[in-house]
Amino acid sequence: MLQPFYPHPGISGIRDWKWYPATVLQCAALFFLLADPWFGRYGFRLEPNLLVPAIAVLIVASLAWEGLLFGPVRGVNLLLQVIFLAPFTLYLCRITEKSPAARTGGSLVETLAGWTHSALDLTGIARLVPALLRDIFSNPALLVILLLLLTGMCFRKTAIRLGVVGLILGGFTFTALFSAEGSNRCFIPAVIALAGAAMLQWHPCRRLMETRNILDALGSVAGRARFRAAFRIALTACRRGSLREAGVLAILREEFPQLSPDALRAAASRLLADLVEHRRILIFRADRNGVRLEPAAELTEVDSPLAGIAVVPRLIFVTLFAILWIISPLDLIPDAIPFFGALDDATVAILAFGQIYGRYFRRQ
């Protein structure tokens, strides 16, 4: 039997008690970060860098808007997630950027960078390069974070995404504790407040979304036992990722104990034909172990513009990485070796196509 699932909407509204501490904690995190002397000795001062808010939006979009880890993307939940971007962006600046208070421009690297920017400005080339691209190459730490995040977010499993984000933020946060320009009396309370706000908003509701999608797709199924069997088959396939013939027959045997084995198989064929061909809830997959059922992409993917914010950068990253890998003269296996020399390029191309196909074309 399936375990009972009791959905709740996360923070349901401003009357929910969690709304007040979550809002207070986010405001407190913003206050402590603005008061941190790391941002300037004479009050808040920060040179704008478009890459930092872009990374903040990417993380929130992937975990909250695509992964649905902080409640449904609507109402108060969405408002809190948008407000969360302000202190979270400053937090990313604090752990990755160089302190504005320490920018003296006296080092050789900074002098060369200043000459390069001046030359680009004089020639007019700087106006042709988007500001976001200039920011990517002006801070190596941000470039490393961006590449690691995009790589980690390409995985479908939420645990891998959380692990990548946790390792990156944890490592840079630990390093930021030893910053000479900042004050841990401001930075540590800000980190604690941000973590507390995230914990209050934490509510993985993908199961709720899947359940609602299944119920909407089933609509009206004749017979209570047949409806229960169809719902359990679809829900089990979503929870496990796949379901084979033995699992389908076990569910039908519980719902229709009076049927003979032959009648049970006939009922399973009719029900699966309805779920696969008519309602398009499930799809058939075949491998060396036999045929299995998998949930359709529409049941597990979040189809919304906000979720697309996280998908599009990954598709661009995967495509550019595959193109640069193929045209690059450096290979894991030299191209001079017959047949085997093209294996690494072919593998990267296949993996990139699989990522693009799985994230975009299957949703059409």
TrEMBL record:
Membrane-traversing stretches: 20-39, 51-70, 76-96, 136-155, 162-180, 306-327, 339-358
Primary location class: membrane
Boundaries of every DUF1232 domain copy: 318-350
GO CC terms in record: endomembrane system
Membrane-topology annotation of the record: Multi-pass membrane protein
Keywords assigned: Membrane, Transmembrane, Transmembrane helix
InterPro entries documented for this protein: DUF1232
Cell compartments where the protein resides: Endomembrane system
Protein name per Swiss-Prot or TrEMBL: Uncharacterized protein DUF1232
Lineage: Bacteria, Pseudomonadati, Lentisphaerota, Lentisphaeria, Victivallales
